[in-house]
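protien #1 (seq + structre)
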Amino acid sequence: MSMLSEFKAFAMRGNVIDLAVGVVIGGAFGKIVTSLVDQIIMPPIGWLTGGVDFSNLKWVLRPADATDPAHKVAEVAIQYGAFINTLIQFLIIAFAIFLVIKGINKLNRKQEEAPSAPPADVALLTEIRDLLKNRQ
């Protein structure tokens, strides 16, 4: 089997295609959640906290210095506000995935709970056993 045909067989498996679709949808979902957090959730929280924009919150370790154009120094800062936004995005995505997995598990449980009827042989043997018990 040539390498190209082996790769084709690998790529056409259902798992690989499902994974690719999941990655594309996950990327799009991540953008939706980012927009939701940055443009819908954080503005009211900022308003409630006195007009604070969380994405701009930072702890400056060394301010930028542009006084000497030949030796510009960039700002060094810990941007904890952006981290808070990312943390909220993660929590929303994790909760959405939790709900999806919970729904899938619920569907699987219903399929497992459906008791299968005992085979005819077992039912017949049980009947014979019960009749023999009653005769004694």
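ok now protien #2
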Amino acid sequence: MPAAALAGQDSNLQPGEYEVQMRLELPHIEDMSAQKTAKVCITATGTHGIVVLSENNPLIRCPASNIKESGGELTFDLICEGHNQAVASAKFELFRERFAGAFDMKMGGKNMTMTERQSGKRLGDCASQPHS
């Protein structure tokens, strides 16, 4: 379904400010997972403002495509432009005031794969309106 068609679709996920726990997992490396907590303003449509949170990650600037939401599940792809660039596929479960899921990422040119797992919990309304 095109992203424009999703714009009118209601989601169970309530917009607002969410505290998101993030863990970056690197395959075959036990003690190298990075963790952090961030506050994100979740929106009502599209990817809902769910983004890659790991630092120094080129995927944060890449457009989302293939956005699909059905039955409380949100999936989409992040594909950076250019040859041999980074790509990711996202799969999240959406609930009324929380979400959980992961970005499976492949960094272009480096043959490196990793997974960013996220879980978010609604805190309340956003301090300012997002620009999405």
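The CA atoms of residues 65 and 123 lie 28 Å apart.
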